[in-house]
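User: Is it possible to get a 3D structure for a protein together with its bound compound? The compound here is nicotinamide-adenine-dinucleotide. I've pasted both below.
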Amino acid sequence: MSEAELRARIREAAELIVESKKNVALTGAGISVESGIPDFRGPNGLWKRYGEHVGHISFFFTNPGEFWKFALEVAKVIFAARPNPAHYALAELEKMGKLHCIITQNIDGLHQKAGSKNVIEIHGTAWRLVCLQCGTKFPVEEIASKLMSKGFTIPRCLKCEGILKPDTVFFGERLPEEELKIAISESMSCDLFMVVGSSLVVYPAASLPGIAKSHGAKTILVNLERTAMDEMFDVVIYGKAGEILPKIVEEVKKMM
Ligand code: NAD
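Assistant: Yes, that's possible. Here is the predicted structure of the complex:
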């Protein structure tokens, strides 16, 4: 994409945002890559290093110890991460009244850390653990000292000693019902739908831009690489979210 073309597309995206009455954003792992958290399928994605099987619920049940070794390595990165300019740009759009909500596939909590208020976490959060036996949920801080202690293997429930799992959606698990319901209803009722940093291959999240489009919304995609759904978007911008989103917000400010 040439510089001139990039500038033109950023302007087009900003125009759509200014004209919109209800703008909804769907974010994926790509938006947090510039915060140091690897995505799954991007150029340095986690699946290239570990294999997709570790994200499946059956792997967790069969090898909880091995899963937790992988999870702790990722968790240390997630807990130390800070929001990047892309997270702050979306938080600023919300403050300006130009973003209704963020539907995120991410589990890192970085949108909230950046100041976004209306965030729907459809794949759960790494900041909570759930007991597979009694269903009790624990903020990660309550278990943290055990998690990080020497010789640690598998975290167990403080009430019933059941095995704890991150309160995130694994492959093979259902999405949280309430969050999915809200995400679908927001997608149906918005007039602009922006996707940032998602390969759009994980369903049902990947169906949300299509739901918005089929209800008449305009659509914007900001992603480093092509996705399987690029043709469906009114404006497609290839690039790093941390560089593109602040430029879009700058344009929006000028236009308003
Ligand atoms: P994905 O890994 O399938 O796709 C990420 C996309 O982001 C890729 O197409 C890549 O080209 C793009 N990308 C990489 N760096 C970018 C950047 N700087 N700016 C813009 N785009 C960039 O991710 P997905 O679509 O979210 O689906 C994978 C699943 O992985 C999700 O369900 C999510 O729960 C989980 N996940 C979350 C995190 C996190 O919380 N940060 C990290 C890894 C995976």
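Residues 3-19 form the longest helix (17 residues). The first strand starts at residue 23 and ends at 27.
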